[in-house]
Amino acid sequence: MDSLTPAEQRELNSRMERKQMKEFMTMYSKLVQRCFDHCVNDFTTKSLISREESCVMRCVDKYMRSNERVGERFQEQNAAMMQAGSMAGR
Amino acid sequence: MSFLFGQRPQPSSAEKIAAAEAEIEMVSNMFNQLVDTCTKKCIPPQYREADLNKGESVCLDRCVAKFFEVNVKVSEKMQGEAAQKGGAGGAGGGMFGQ
């Protein structure tokens, strides 16, 4: 890959920022969907019962932590793969 | 515009940015796929506690490792089949050739 000039890098960075915003919104709506599906099944009341509410809180926590962990492992694997690739290419 | 004959034309700014963006997009898509599939496989929908327990943590670690391995194997196999069809000696087989 040719290296980018500072101006090109700035453009790439601003696109990446927009993309990250979009990804965050996607993750957020996926999370709401997931926690609602798994935690809220009682429609005898109009507002969340305490069981549902604490389930949702735990669901969000758990999801964020697993996201983090997968991210860490992903970076490790990706780095290892890059290294293997650059060695095999010789 | 290069006036020196015999030189490869320089990619334009837009092309370079697009190429970088496409590469990042590819990695990012893979990550999202990975997160989706591993949380589905490893995190049961009960949410008894907020922290990941040991089983879930180990499951996630292994899931990521296996996902990458599958990625590599599929890539190798497809490169192998393409080389076969192309009739060429399958030179190198790319990044993951043995």
From TrEMBL, chain A:
Coiled coil: none annotated. GO terms for cellular component: mitochondrial inner membrane. It is found in: Mitochondrion inner membrane. Residues 15-76 form the Tim10-like domain. Transmembrane segments: none annotated. GO terms for biological process: protein transport. The keyword Mitochondrion applies. InterPro entries: Mito_inner_translocase_sub, Tim10-like, Tim10-like_dom_sf. One of its GO terms (molecular function) is metal ion binding. SUPFAM superfamilies: Tim10-like (SSF144122). It is a peripheral membrane protein. Keywords: Chaperone, Disulfide bond, Membrane, Metal-binding, Mitochondrion, Mitochondrion inner membrane, Protein transport, Translocation, Transport, Zinc. Mitochondrial intermembrane chaperone that participates in the import and insertion of some multi-pass transmembrane proteins into the mitochondrial inner membrane. Also required for the transfer of beta-barrel precursors from the TOM complex to the sorting and assembly machinery (SAM complex) of the outer membrane. Acts as a chaperone-like protein that protects the hydrophobic precursors from aggregation and guide them through the mitochondrial intermembrane space. Heterohexamer; composed of 3 copies of TIM9 and 3 copies of TIM10, named soluble 70 kDa complex. Associates with the TIM22 complex, whose core is composed of TIM22 and TIM54. Interacts with the transmembrane regions of multi-pass transmembrane proteins in transit. The twin CX3C motif contains 4 conserved Cys residues that form 2 disulfide bonds in the mitochondrial intermembrane space. Belongs to the small Tim family. This is Mitochondrial import inner membrane translocase subunit. It comes from Vermiconidia calcicola. The lineage of its organism: Eukaryota, Fungi, Dikarya, Ascomycota, Pezizomycotina.
From TrEMBL, chain B:
It comes from the Eukaryota. This is Protein transporter tim10.
